[in-house]
Amino acid sequence: MTDEVAAVDTNELESRQESSRQLGGKKISRPKLRRYDSLELESGKCSGHHRRGSKELSWSVILHLAFQSIGVVYGDIGTSPLYVYDSVFTSGIRNNEDILGALSLIFYTITLIPLTKYIFIVLRANDNGEGGTFALYSLICRYAKVGLIPSQQAEDSDVSNFKLEFPSKRLERATRLKSMLERSQFAKCFLLFATVLGTSMVIGDGVLTPCISVLSAVSGLKHATEAMTQGKIVCISIAIFICLFMVQRFGTDKVGYTFAPIICIWFSSIGIIGIYNYFKYDPAVIKAINPKYIVDYFRRNKKEAWISLGGVVLAITGTEALFADLGHFTVRSVQISMCSLTYPALLCAYGGQAAFLRKHNDAIGDTFYKSLPGSVYWPMFAVAVMAAIIASQAMISGTFSIIQQSLALGCFPRVKIVHTSTKYEGQVYIPEVNYLLMLACVAVTLAFRDSSKIGNAYGIAVVFVMTLTSGFLVLIMLMIWKTNIFLIILYMLTIGTVELTYLSSVLYKFDQGGYLPLAFAAVLMFIMFVWNDVHRRKYYYELDHKISPDKLKEIAAENKFSRLPGLALFYSELVHGIPPIFKHYVANVPALHSILIFVSIKSLPISKVPAEERFLFRRVEPKELNVFRCVARYGYTDVHNDQEPFERMLVESLQVFIKDDYFLSKSMTNEDNDGETDYRQNDHEEQIRQEEMEKEIDEIDKASCAGIVHLIGETEVIAGKGAGIMKKIMIDYAFNFLKRNLRQSENIFDIPRKRMLKVGMTYEL
């Protein structure tokens, strides 16, 4: 077998072999089997649809996840009643009817965006159970070749694409759009830019959410005692931040079960108090369900009403967490918790506060605390502080999820991913990111010191991410779901128009703190752009300088390797061919282990790859060298951990490959004999092949028992001669700074240091 090994579908061969046995070994005429590349054959076995929901979960598990989601997902949107009315009426209430207009805006905003858009539409756009901006992007990449990330190669087409559909007008429309995107380099770059921008904004949310939520809750102390100054409130808030980030290492599973009861009490309390205030002060606020009051509100206040939308949008902060945190739960569990508890409790809370304000126009500052019945002030203060702490959890968990996705797709520097739950997939913790978020929260709180200023910044981050999500969703509707065009237009005219209106309003407050999330996004986008760009340049350098099979034969003939007992794993990012660093290695160390495997860790644009379909192998000629190429495929939510022993699984998969390789070689030899085979005359040849196969498997067992050595290609990249100043800054300074200060490959893959050898080489890009 050569490097371009001939292979066929195993099921087809077994079926034909069974037919031959049934015919008693008679000569039968069959069409020749098609020839495939071995990696292409095996990659076709992975459908990319393996997800948590592939097995139907029992209702008990779904309800457990729904309960957990209350503590993780809804803290942010649940604590919005602490500050929304204060942010809407920043100049006080001028007309009592304005309260109905504001309540009507809040009611329809919550109904349209979190409930209709996210719960019933966006959650359906999950990528095998994963949510977030990168999940949408990778979903689009599965249907159109729009990715700029080098892990997307031609042999992944069978892995990434869904089944073909029968032609229809909608399919033709989707095909035209797909072709247009694939031909346009600008479209590819813009999609990646929008993805990185959305990701950066969500990470910015992870910083701003603790600041505004905790500050707003702790500010209630000012109404209890005059001795409580703003400086003391800031110090208490910072102490709470530190404690919150310190418990993240225990994982979403434990944090969710700890926080869920508190948030349940919070939602129940604000709902009950809202109903109490509704009947006590003004039941007429139910009229706000009529959108006429929105029109009247804008007629009376004009520009001021438009500016106040920046406060109304704070009622839906944390909505993106519904989608970003989906990997921690399931679609059904999030839908149940939203519809049964969160949505009705929020409507009651805002309705009750509106009824209170109708009778107390002067109570617009800290409306939440002033509207509380006196007997429940301190209990509600305690629950509010705890709910505000939990509100931060939603975006922190979402930040961990999207950074895991962007890391796997080559758009974020290497960081350690810790899988915190053996019971539920997708629950992760990232130590470096956790501490950076904590430092950023402390810095923002010390700089702004007031929740109203942070609210201006918060609104921009929230609406930007929602608008980008809508853009991706329209592409998915057109190209993947093939939705009726009239429904797409209806979506754009309703939800799209509402989001763009809110975006125009929050941008008005750019100079009042709105610049903060954009500054966060700019820094994060620069880091992600530098890493992704140099990552791709490095990959294509290796691709251009890879060692061909003929070149390997020359190297083997020139160096006359001595062989060492053991099995060596030579790591490289290159999927096609042998990396150039191998030539550098053998020139300095003219010895090879008895078995050598070139391993490429490759991320696919799907969420998970089943462990049994993890490895793809190819034999490298000459056969006597015992050299193989291996591609270890991971989805962007797969985590390298002890539950999946890498070395043992790789060796076992290699042995299975050798068995299949000999079987396929025998079958192809039979097929090449003019389509006519007499199986009774091949007993001797089959016995020889069987002995060769057993000998090779035995050699692999002996090599693995002698010891497995990990050879890490540690390459240094520098800008090539004649490179421009910007390219030198990006490669020589920015990228290498990130690389030096972040985790190395052996830490990411938990490679044992006692059996690791680094091979260094410099690439001029």
From TrEMBL:
<feature type="transmembrane region" description="Helical">
    <location>
        <begin position="99"/>
        <end position="120"/>
    </location>
</feature>
<feature type="transmembrane region" description="Helical">
    <location>
        <begin position="227"/>
        <end position="247"/>
    </location>
</feature>
<protein>
    <recommendedName>
        <fullName>Potassium transporter</fullName>
    </recommendedName>
</protein>
<feature type="transmembrane region" description="Helical">
    <location>
        <begin position="336"/>
        <end position="356"/>
    </location>
</feature>
<comment type="function">
    <text>Potassium transporter.</text>
</comment>
<keyword id="KW-0633">Potassium transport</keyword>
<feature type="domain" description="K+ potassium transporter C-terminal">
    <location>
        <begin position="565"/>
        <end position="765"/>
    </location>
</feature>
<comment type="similarity">
    <text>Belongs to the HAK/KUP transporter (TC 2.A.72.3) family.</text>
</comment>
<feature type="transmembrane region" description="Helical">
    <location>
        <begin position="57"/>
        <end position="79"/>
    </location>
</feature>
<feature type="transmembrane region" description="Helical">
    <location>
        <begin position="457"/>
        <end position="478"/>
    </location>
</feature>
<keyword id="KW-0630">Potassium</keyword>
<feature type="transmembrane region" description="Helical">
    <location>
        <begin position="376"/>
        <end position="396"/>
    </location>
</feature>
<keyword id="KW-0406">Ion transport</keyword>
<dbReference type="GO" id="GO:0005886">
    <property type="term" value="C:plasma membrane"/>
</dbReference>
<feature type="transmembrane region" description="Helical">
    <location>
        <begin position="485"/>
        <end position="508"/>
    </location>
</feature>
<feature type="transmembrane region" description="Helical">
    <location>
        <begin position="259"/>
        <end position="279"/>
    </location>
</feature>
<keyword id="KW-0813">Transport</keyword>
<dbReference type="Pfam" id="PF22776">
    <property type="entry name" value="K_trans_C"/>
</dbReference>
<feature type="transmembrane region" description="Helical">
    <location>
        <begin position="514"/>
        <end position="531"/>
    </location>
</feature>
<feature type="region of interest" description="Disordered">
    <location>
        <begin position="1"/>
        <end position="27"/>
    </location>
</feature>
<dbReference type="GO" id="GO:0015079">
    <property type="term" value="F:potassium ion transmembrane transporter activity"/>
</dbReference>
<keyword id="KW-0812">Transmembrane</keyword>
<dbReference type="InterPro" id="IPR003855">
    <property type="entry name" value="K+_transporter"/>
</dbReference>
<dbReference type="InterPro" id="IPR053952">
    <property type="entry name" value="K_trans_C"/>
</dbReference>
<dbReference type="InterPro" id="IPR053951">
    <property type="entry name" value="K_trans_N"/>
</dbReference>
<feature type="transmembrane region" description="Helical">
    <location>
        <begin position="305"/>
        <end position="324"/>
    </location>
</feature>
<keyword id="KW-1133">Transmembrane helix</keyword>
<dbReference type="Pfam" id="PF02705">
    <property type="entry name" value="K_trans"/>
</dbReference>
<feature type="domain" description="K+ potassium transporter integral membrane">
    <location>
        <begin position="65"/>
        <end position="551"/>
    </location>
</feature>
<feature type="transmembrane region" description="Helical">
    <location>
        <begin position="433"/>
        <end position="451"/>
    </location>
</feature>
<keyword id="KW-0472">Membrane</keyword>
